[in-house]
Amino acid sequence: MTVALIDNGSLEPAAHQHLREVASRLSNRLRVPVHAVSWKHSDRIPAAELGGRPAWTVDAFLRSRIAAGERDFLLVPFFLSAQGAIGSALRRELEHLQAEAGGFTFAFTEGIAARGVVPAIAASRIRDVLTQRRLSAAPIVVVDHGGPSPASAALRDRLAGEIAATLSLPDTRVVAASMEGRHPPLLRDTLRQPGLAGQDVVVLPLFLSPGRHAGPGGDIATLCQESPARCHLAGLLGTHELAVEALAGALLHHLSQSHTPSLA
After folding, report:
1. Cα→Cα distances 120→18, 125, 131, 237, Å
2. Where are the beta strands (DSSP E) in 95-236?
3. How many structural domains is the chain composed of?
4. CA-CA distance, 55 to 50, in Å (whole number)?
5. Domain limits for position 193
6. What is the pLDDT of residues 188-242, one digit of tens each?
C-alpha cells in the first residue's frame, strides 16, 4: 500500500513545502512512509524553489507507482472535507484513471472536518489573535474559498456555528463568508456591514496552507486591507498541531482496519 497526503495544489512554493512538512510529521508519528502529492498545479513550481525536488501531482504519481507494481493507494485529504467539490472531482479523476490503467484500488481517510477538530483549532487561533492584539472581544468572520458546491457552503456555515459554540459566543458574533463564488455572503460585502465596518474584526481563514488566497499577501489579506474594518487575521488551520493529530488519527484508524502487509 502507498499512502499519500493530497492537497488541492498551488503555484506557491510555501503551500507545497507545508504539505511536505505535514507528510513528514505524519510519517514520523506513525512510522509509515507518507508521500506529499498535489492534485494539480504544483508540478509547475520550479524544482529549485522546492529544495531541488519537483512536486508530484496525483496523475503522475499514481502512474509512476502503478508502473512500479503498486496496486493499493490510501489517500489522506489535506483539505477540509473529502466530500466537497475538490474531493468529488478528485474521485472522478481517479475513477477515470482506474478505467484507463485498471487493476488498482484507492480509498480516502477522513478529512480534518470529519474528525471534529476544526472548532477547537479555530478557537485556539482566535484566542491567539485576541491576546496578541490585546482585544477583550471582537466579532469574528469565518471565511472559506467559496467552492461551487452547496455542500461547501453548508460546511462553512456549520463550522461557523460550531466555532461560536466552542467560544461560548452567540451565533451573531461569528459570521460565515466566502472569499469568492456563488454562495453569499462574500467577505468583501460582509466587512462593509454595520457593526463590522470601522470596528476590530477577527478574520479566520478556513484554509490549511499558505498560498495565493491565504497567508501573507494573499487574496484574503488584500480584501481585509481594502475593507473599512480593522481586520486581524488569525492563523491557518493546517499549521496547528491539532490538525496533524487529527490526520494521524484518521490514518491510523484506516491502517488498523487494513490487512495490507507492507507500505511503500
Report:
1. 21, 9, 17, 10
2. 105-108, 140-144, 174-178, 200-205, 230-233
3. 2
4. 8
5. 118-237
6. 999 999 999 999 999 999 999 998 899 888 999 999 999 999 999 999 999 999 9
